[in-house]
Write a structure and sequence with these properties.
Structural class: mainly alpha
Largest sheet: none
Distance between the termini: 75 Å
Radius of gyration: 19 Å
Oligomer: single chain
Shape: globular
Strand content: under 5%
Length: 195
């Protein structure tokens, strides 16, 4: 009988290695939060080599996005928003967020996460760490603005999404995206643009 050769980085017999990594990531993120979770720790929990984790997910943010089934990866989204004319960043950000959340499949994981966060301090801490490190700080660095400006802009947009899709406040819930962009973009531009 010939001994079965084991390929490095992969546990023998598993057809869904990616799924096992995502499951392990959910466990590690819930136990340690975003900040203290590591790719090595996730790999160890999944029983795979860390290189295999990098093969499926480019970064810790990528694993987090997959583990929580978020519709966007900040590493891909942020460069598209901050590149381009500085005086149009408010419009780009508002249009992106409103267009993305208009899709029910993209919106539902975010809304579910928000609802969970309202009753679970551990989820709140994890979301706060992820948003701060993977989203807000990157925009702050990319634009060279004070952190409070990005946080206020984010809070404004977050509130609009909650009022539009969770509370379904009319007429906000049914107004066209273009009209909302016209209303919100100047305010977000003031927060994020040059003084």
């Amino acid at each position: 009988m010939t001994a079965e050769r084991r390929r490095p980085g992969r546990r023998p017999g598993s057809a869904d290695t990616r799924g096992e990594i995502v499951t392990a990531a959910r466990k590690i993120f819930s136990e340690k939060g975003f900040d203290k979770a590591t790719i090595r720790g996730i790999a160890r929990e999944a029983g795979v080599d860390p290189a295999l984790v990098h093969h499926y997910f480019d970064s810790k943010e990528g694993i987090f996005v997959a583990a929580l089934e978020l519709p966007i990866n900040p590493a891909e989204m942020i460069p598209r928003i901050i590149q381009g004319p500085r005086d149009e960043i408010g419009e780009r950000l508002v249009r992106f967020l409103l267009t993305m959340t208009a899709d029910p499949q993209a919106r539902e994981p975010i809304i579910a996460l928000v609802r969970s966060a309202m009753t679970n301090e551990q989820i709140v801490a994890m979301i706060r760490e992820f948003l701060t490190m993977a989203v807000l700080n990157r925009v702050v660095e990319g634009l060279g603005i004070p952190p409070v400006r990005m946080q206020v802009a984010f809070a404004q947009m977050f509130g609009v999404v909650l009022m539009r899709y969770v509370l379904r406040l009319e007429p906000l819930a049914s107004v066209e995206i273009d009209e909302l962009v016209e209303i919100l973009a100047p305010t977000i531009q003031r927060y994020l643009g040059d003084d």
